[in-house]
Structures are given as C-alpha cells and as structure tokens.
C-alpha cells in the first residue's frame, strides 16, 4: 500500500505540474493541452464508435504478434541453447537480423503480405522475437549441469526432461524476455499503423487527428490509452511471473 501510494503521489504531482505549466503559458495549450483536457478526451474515447474498432484492432494484433513471437522464439532458443554448433552456425544470421529496425522493412512486407493487419502483426512479431530468443538461449546456458547429468543418468525421456527440467529452469528468464518483447511489439505495431496506413488502428487514429485535424488533445488521449494498456499488460505479466515462478527470482539477459 505504501508503494502504491508513493506511485500515486508521483503521478498526481506530475499531472499538477503539467497543468500549471500549460495554464501559466509556458507551453502553448493548442500544442500541449493540459491534462484536464486530455483526460476528458480520454474518457470520451470509450463512447466514440470510431475509436473502439481502432482500439480492438491494435490490442488484438498486439496479442497475436506477441504470441507468434513466443511460439517461434522459445523452441528456437531451446534448440540453439542446447546445440552449440548450431548456435555458432546461425549466429551470423541472427546477429544480422536482430538490429534491423522493423519499420524499415515496411515496404518489403507490404509487397509480400499486402497492407492489411498481417503487415503490422508480422513486423511486430519480428521485432519482439529477439528478447525472448536471447533470454531463452542465455537461460539454457545457466541450467545446472549436474541436474542435466542426473536426468541423463536416470534415462529420463526427452519429453519429460523438457517439461520437468528445462522449461521450469528457463521460465524466469523467458518471461522476462516476454515482458521486454511486449513493449517492443506495441511500439512497432503502432508505428506501422502510423506509417503504413490502413483502415483501423490506434496509430491511424493518432495520425488522422494529428495531421488532418490538428487536434493534439485527441492525439494525446490516444497516447494515454496506449500507455495505460501497455502498463496494465506489463503489470499482468509481472504478477503472473511472480505467481507462477515464485520459487525463483525473475532474471534475464537484456
């Protein structure tokens, strides 16, 4: 309760400072609206029939992209973490692809997949694969060697060894990677909506209100929505991480 109270005080203090700065004219209200205006627009979004499809499209695409990234990265990370020669063979390809900015691939992905939701999902999944992959590979190297040798000595079947030893051991690191990937995925997803266009998405909502109407209050209301969703998802993942793997400290290799 004390921690939550301190966070609330910090948030309220920030909002009050923002309001005062705008009201006394240090920032132009038409460019940076005060929080009282932004929050009023934010709560109005949930009764706006035009915004709701954008919000659903962005959040649903985000979850799909993150799920695809996890499905790809965890098995690949276990494989590369287990087989050293394969990891060394693929490391040049992985190290080449990892730093590529996903938004730079927008023209290529549009040519391959079209300009629908599949484009933003593919780019968000591509960008969010890497934290999960590298955390999983790192976790595989941190597993107790004696534990692995014991399972081999007992002739534990591979499937049972995977679910009873490997996955529980790498879970703290992998879930940390998922939390990192969730933020990256949301950023790339909204950026793709903004840059590549399309019919729905919060990125398009922000783009249209900002460039066509010049309504910074609506733009910031959309940004507040994205920030709130990102915060809630991160807190949910963190809570799940503490609950599901309470026997281990959350770790990870960034």
TrEMBL record:
Q: One GO BP annotation here?
A: transmembrane transport
Provide one Gene Ontology cellular component.
plasma membrane
Q: Which domain of life is it from?
A: Bacteria
**Which residue ranges does the record assign to the ABC transmembrane type-1 domain?**
55-237
Question: Which UniProt key words apply to this protein?
Answer: Cell membrane, Membrane, Transmembrane, Transmembrane helix, Transport
Which InterPro entries does the record match to this protein? Answer: MetI-like (IPR000515), MetI-like_sf (IPR035906)
Q: Which Pfam families match?
A: BPD_transp_1 (PF00528)
Q: Kindly give the membrane topology term recorded for this protein.
A: Multi-pass membrane protein
Transmembrane stretches in the record are 59-83, 95-115, 121-141, 186-207, 219-238
Q: What is its main location?
A: membrane
Localization: Cell membrane
**Record-stated family:** Belongs to the binding-protein-dependent transport system permease family.
Q: Which PANTHER family match?
A: ABC TRANSPORTER PERMEASE PROTEIN MJ0413-RELATED, ALKANE SULFONATE ABC TRANSPORTER-RELATED, MEMBRANE SUBUNIT
The identity of this protein, by name, is Nitrate ABC transporter permease
Identify the species of origin: Amycolatopsis bartoniae
């Amino acid at each position: 309760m004390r921690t939550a109270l301190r966070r609330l005080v910090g948030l309220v203090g920030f909002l009050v400072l923002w309001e005062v700065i705008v009201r006394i004219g240090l920032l132009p209200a038409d460019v940076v609206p005060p929080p009282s205006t932004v929050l009023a627009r934010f709560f109005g979004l949930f009764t706006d029939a035009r915004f709701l499809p954008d919000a659903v499209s962005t959040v649903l695409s985000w979850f799909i992209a993150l799920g695809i990234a996890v499905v790809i990265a965890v098995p690949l990370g276990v494989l590369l973490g287990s087989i050293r020669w394969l990891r060394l063979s693929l490391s040049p390809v992985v190290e080449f692809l990892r730093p590529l900015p996903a938004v730079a691939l927008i023209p290529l992905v549009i040519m391959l997949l079209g300009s629908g939701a599949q484009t933003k999902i593919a780019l968000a999944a591509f960008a969010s694969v890497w934290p999960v992959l590298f955390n999983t590979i790192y976790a595989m190297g941190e597993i107790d060697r004696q534990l692995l040798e014991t399972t081999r000595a007992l002739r534990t079947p591979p499937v049972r060894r995977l679910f009873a030893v490997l996955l529980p051991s790498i879970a703290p690191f992998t879930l940390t990677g998922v939390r990192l990937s969730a933020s990256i995925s949301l950023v790339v997803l909204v950026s793709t909506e903004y840059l590549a266009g399309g019919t729905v998405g919060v990125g398009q909502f922000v783009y249209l209100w900002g460039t066509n109407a010049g309504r910074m209050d609506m733009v910031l209301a959309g940004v507040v929505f994205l920030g709130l969703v990102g915060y809630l998802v991160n807190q949910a993942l963190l809570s799940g991480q503490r609950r599901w793997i309470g026997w281990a400290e959350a770790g990870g290799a960034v």
